[in-house]
Amino acid sequence: MNKRLIGILFSIILLLPMSVLAEIKIGYVVVEKVLKEAPQTTVSNKKLEKEFKSRTDGLQKKVKGIQKQEKDYKKNSVTMSESERQKAQKKIQNAKIDIQRIERELREDIDIRRREEIGKLQQQINKAIEDLAKKEKYDLILYQGVAYASKGIDITNDLIKSLGKSK
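Above: the chain sequence. Below: its structure as tokens.
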């Protein structure tokens, strides 16, 4: 009788954690997909494009100007004196260096602003995850450092829809 009672208690103890785990609702979010597909990403990209359009256009004009200078140099270098050729080469070289500097600065400025926009989006994502968790009664939502997550717990599309509503 004692052995039977101990066996039943042991079975209950083993089954207890499984029943507790069965009641936990878990979700998983693919952050990269959210960052790509969230409506806020499109808005942010258009905002950055508009913000840096004049600088980008100015850089493109300078590049075309240098290309024209190089073309003119190649065309006229035969008739130039040695000192004129050196002067023209130096002018073109300095202009190229200037363009590289401007391009690097522009790229750095765009990267800084993009990181700022991504930071804002990540705050919105975290808030949306929290809201979705409360609304759908999730006990745990994971989104980084997961080796595997089944499609059954992937709530990425729900989160993207939620972000679309909060736009």
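The chain has one domain: 24-165.
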